[in-house]
């Protein structure tokens, strides 16, 4: 009797907490926005530009609340999660604005709370809402997300797939050293730390080589082998797939048993907590992709990118029967797949880039075990590093983009010094989208076919300043469209 009474009061208290939590939520609603993408996709620049444009009232004509003057102010507040590193907004903006340098690579998760005070468009909503929305922006590596499918795989499955992927033509040479080492080691031999470490290091070196390869291969798990965060060197990261395991159960004390246990530890202590604590709490998600780099590298790289996007999408809204479904506490209802760096193309090609991303996303949605979220696409530049112009060549007038290439960048044998503004004819994206995806067509890097687009990296733009020395808003392409899709409806 007594114990059931305690249970009752506990439950009541929890229910009450939830209720009051809801009530506070009502007065200051929050929206968790996940920002992901493989490394160098443009996450840090996107978040910095988004926050700067909102705080400083940047030019955002497609962001309805801003355009109609309903945003009173936007400001940074303390983030709700004390254990997650803060997104270092001020440092990134200082690099972009003062040094005209791109921010450093960020290798782990971070978070920032941006609060927007606004006036509702309708009188009805004005009466019932606080006119305040906190957006919790969470930046995390896409590589970590690609680990989620591991939750449904045994060590034997993981090993088999790793070896299958390793002998694909695009990876065969890169995986050679690891496969050779692996062939010399007997999984059934006694466990020994040195063999485990040598295998793990060799396997990680192969994954890193894929990442650096100019064929722009996207990523294979485990993601922490590429982005260890603070786990570098821990036993949960000291494992590697083993060859020829079949369905054999590991002999206790063997290398096989040791690797199997560490793989399971990786899932339990790394993958699952990350998914539960971060992914399942998201409301909205943007997936940034570096389509420019993949396009430049050819259809093989596009296919690889498509595979990565498929896997990423299937993690967000797992369909019925997926082992991931049970873990979700909230539902992501909108996902934006965004190709950044559109400022490398003349605006005439922006719609083509967007059409290519749409095709990629559609195919990924169709293939992923995925239900129920709105997926939209955009070709954008979070920070526009170029302007447009024309150059006369004989009788022809060519559309060009003008910017300052980063020191050391090369085009047609010319090396840039990082100071000189240069006009570049970027080339056009093909009108026929199929060509971009056609794996049987020429792969630019393998044949010596000229790439469709010429790709140099530019420095961030020189910003105009007012007479008082205040920098004007950061230039962008379609950042406002992205914002409208991601948070616009919450400010209606
Ligand atoms: N021209 C142009 N370049 C961009 C833009 N966004 C990102 N870049 C380039 O892409 C690089 C990577 O951008 P980041 O924002 O640091 O990418 P990230 O996804 O945070 O990368 P990691 O932190 O390494 O995972 C930058 O250093 C720039 O060279 C953009 O809008 N325009
Ligand atoms: Mg980053």
Automatic annotation (TrEMBL):
It comes from the Bacteria. InterPro entries: YcjX-like. Pfam families: DUF463. This is YcjX family protein.
